[in-house]
Every structure is written in structure tokens, then in C-alpha cells.
Design brief:
The protein has two domains: 43 residues; 158 residues, Glutaredoxin. α2 runs antiparallel to α4, α3 packs across α6 and α4 packs across α5. A four-stranded mixed β-sheet has the order 1-2-4-3. 58% of the residues lie in helices and 10% in strands. 30% of the residues are buried.
């Protein structure tokens, strides 16, 4: 009877130690996983260092596009280039944000080569993105600001999952010591909407009505 009781106490103690061991392992797994997630998030912070080397690229408005003539498109690259590359984008589009976040330095290197001119085509499919587009276009007059603001807004959406709304865009431009007057924003929004309509008509003529 005594030995039986001792045996029961011993197995109960073993189960207790096993439970504590499993709890400890689970705690370590949680801590390590949390640390890795935090490290990945911190290492993916939005930083303009990836695009700072392209601040000398010519950025301006161009109405001489072969594909969408007479529209005020933002152009990156030399006045005359052998090739024209058209980038259709919506600042609230997560796929566009992913593409810019991953590939913008590559696109800029093409423009920097002197052989390629990038035309940035405002394709506002999310109506609430209009003002953000207007603010971004308003930054064209300031050296390098357009590229930095485009990259940071794309990083915000891709990495943080937050849309680059007008307040965020104003904050980015403020950090770059830029203030865009409201009347200028309205003008650029109107131009961006005009480009959007023309781009949709062009795509419809090429591929049919997407609706």
C-alpha cells in the first residue's frame, strides 16, 4: 500500500514536470517566433535609401507621349530616349505598391541609362486616391521629391498595409520641406482624372471593356 502510494506520487510528479517542460518549450517558441516577426517588420521599414541614388534623374511633365499624346504625364528620364515605357498605377492599388516597392530601383536604372523614358500614367481606379495623386503630381517641381514620395507611399501600402491617404502624403512632403497649395492639388487631380479616362479608353480599345 505504501509503495503503491509512492508510485502514484512519483508519476504525478513526472506529469507535472512534463507539463512544465512543454509550457517552457511553448514559451520559447512564442518568444522566438515573435522576435523573428518583429525583426522582419523592423528590417522592412520604409527607407528612401534605395532610391536616393537616382535624385539626378530628370522628372517633369510631358505632353508628347506617343501612346497618350496631349496629356500631362509625369515623365522620368531624358528628353529624347530610344524607348518609352508606360507604368499604369493607382496609389491605393496593393499590386502597384508591391511592384514599386520591389522594382522601382530597377525601373529608375532604365531611366538613368539614358535609353528609356518612363511615363507614369495615373490610373485612378480607387476614387478616394484622387487627392493623393494630386499631391504626388504636385511634387514634380521639386528635385527628387516625386521619386521619394512614390517609393514611400508604395512601401507604406505594401509593408504596413495602410493606404497612402492625403494626410500621409502631406506628411511625407512636409518631411521633404514641400507644401503643395490646395489650388495646385485640385489642378493636378483634374489632370490625373483626365489621364485616367484616356488610359481606360485606350485599354478598352486594346483589350475590350474590362467590365
Amino acid at each position: 500500500m505504501v509503495s503503491a502510494l509512492k508510485s502514484k506520487r512519483r508519476s504525478s510528479g513526472d506529469r507535472g514536470r512534463l507539463a512544465w517542460l512543454l509550457a517552457g518549450i511553448a514559451f520559447i517558441v512564442v518568444v522566438v517566433s515573435g522576435s523573428l516577426i518583429a525583426y522582419n517588420m523592423l528590417s522592412s521599414k520604409c527607407n528612401v535609401r534605395d532610391v536616393e541614388g537616382f535624385s539626378d534623374i530628370i522628372v517633369g511633365f510631358d505632353e508628347r507621349s506617343s501612346l497618350l499624346p496631349n496629356l500631362s504625364l509625369v515623365a522620368l528620364g531624358p528628353e529624347r530616349a530610344r524607348y518609352e515605357v508606360y507604368v499604369f498605377y493607382d496609389l491605393y492599388c496593393p499590386f502597384c505598391a508591391w511592384e514599386f516597392y520591389e522594382s522601382l530601383p530597377i525601373l529608375l536604372s532604365y531611366a538613368n541609362s539614358g535609353k528609356v523614358k518612363l511615363y507614369m500614367v495615373d490610373m485612378i481606379l480607387h476614387g478616394e486616391a484622387r487627392e493623393s495623386h494630386g499631391l504626388l503630381r504636385g511634387s514634380v517641381d521639386f528635385k527628387g521629391a516625386f521619386i521619394k514620395a512614390l517609393y514611400l507611399s508604395s512601401c507604406r501600402l505594401h509593408v504596413e498595409g495602410k493606404v497612402p491617404d492625403p494626410s500621409y502624403m502631406r506628411g511625407v512632403l512636409s518631411k521633404l520641406n514641400i507644401t503643395i497649395p490646395e489650388d495646385r492639388v485640385r489642378v493636378e487631380v483634374a489632370k490625373a482624372q483626365q489621364i485616367t479616362r484616356a488610359a481606360l479608353n485606350l485599354l478598352t480599345s486594346l483589350y475590350g471593356d474590362p467590365r
